[in-house]
Amino acid sequence: MSKVSKWWNRLVQTGFERLEPYAGKLARTVLRGVWLSNGSCLPDQVQHQMAVTGKSVVDVCVLICGQEIRIYRIERDDELIDRLIELERRFWHYVEQDIQPPVDGTDSARQALRALYPHDSGNFIDLTDDLGLSTAFVGMVSLRAEIESKQEIAEHLKQQIQQRMGEASKATFRSGSVTWKRNKSGHRRFVVNVDQSNPSSVQQPISQSISQEVSGEHHD
Questions:
Q1: What's the rounded Cα separation, in Å, for the pair 198 and 161?
Q2: If pLDDT is split at 50, 70 and 90, which confidence band does 12 have?
Q3: How far apart (Å, rounded) are the C-alpha atoms in residues 42 and 35?
Q4: pLDDT of 95 above 80
Q5: Three-state DSSP class for 66?
Q6: At 175, phi and psi to the nearest 5?
Q7: pLDDT score recorded for residue 11
Q8: What is the three-class DSSP state of 217?
Q9: Tens digit of pLDDT for each residue in 185-202?
Q10: CA angle at residue 17 from 51 to 57, to 5 degrees?
Q11: Which is it for strands 170-173 and 22-27: parallel, antiparallel or unpaired?
C-alpha cells in the first residue's frame, strides 16, 4: 500500500474533524534535494496555520516533480509563531497607514519592486544630499566589487577540483563532497555537498584557499 493510501485510510478512519491540519505542496526539481532531506525547509505558512487553528502538528504532503510523494509531520514552533505574529503586526500597520513597507533585501521584496515599477519614467532625481542613500550606494558598490572578486576565486577553486576529477562523477573530501554528473540536457552539473554534521570544518580550509589564491601560493 502506498503512503498516500495509508494516509487516506487514516483520514477516513479517524474522522476529518479530529485530524491535524493538512497542507499540500508542489516541489520543483531544484527543490528535490531539500524536500527529500528531512522536510525541515518548509514554508512558514505551515506554522501560521497552526497559530490560527491552535493545532500542535500539521501533516504536509509534498508532490515532488509530479512523480514522488512525501508526507512530513511538522510540529508547532511557538517561538517562530511569535516572530511571525510580530512581523504580521508590523505589516498590518503599514496597510492601515497606507505606507509602503521598507525593503528588506529578500527575494519577495525584489519581486514586489519589479511589480510596482515595471517601467521607468525618464525623470532624474538628485540624491546627493541624502546621506543615508549615499552611504547605501557606497556600500553597494564596495560589496559588489568584493563579491565579484570572491566569485572569481571560487570559480578558480572549482576548476581545480574539476580538472583533478576529470571524468569522475563524484569526489569526497574531509568536510563534504562534490558531484559532477551529466544531466538530461547533456551537460555535466557541478553540485557541492557540505557535511552538515560539522559545518565549521569547512570554514578554515576555505579561508586558507582564499588566502592562497590572493597571494598566488599553491600547495601540492
A1: 21
A2: low
A3: 8
A4: yes
A5: coil
A6: -115, 15
A7: 55
A8: coil
A9: 888 999 998 887 765 555
A10: 35
A11: unpaired
Answer for the pair 192, 176: CB distance below 8 angstroms, yes or no.
Answer: yes
Segments making up each domain of the chain, as ranges: 3-76, 81-116, 131-215
- Residue 75 one-letter amino acid: E
Q: Which residue has the cell 599553491?
A: 218
The least confident of 40-54, 152-166, 183-197 is 40-54
Letter for the amino acid at 114?
A: R
What are 109's three cell numbers?
521584496
Residue with cell 512523480: 67
Q: Which residue has the cell 600547495?
A: 219
For the cut 70, the answer to whether the pLDDT of residue 88 exceeds it is yes
At position 46, the amino acid (one-letter code) is: V
Cell triple for residue 141? 558598490
Nearest Cα to 73, choosing from 63, 59, 87, 62?
A: 59
Question: Cell 576565486 appears where?
Answer: 153
The Cα-based distances of 126 to 47, 102, 138, 139 in angstroms read 44, 20, 16, 18
Q: Are 47 and 76 in contact (CB under 8 A)?
A: yes
User: pLDDT confidence of 36, banded at 50, 70, 90?
Assistant: very low
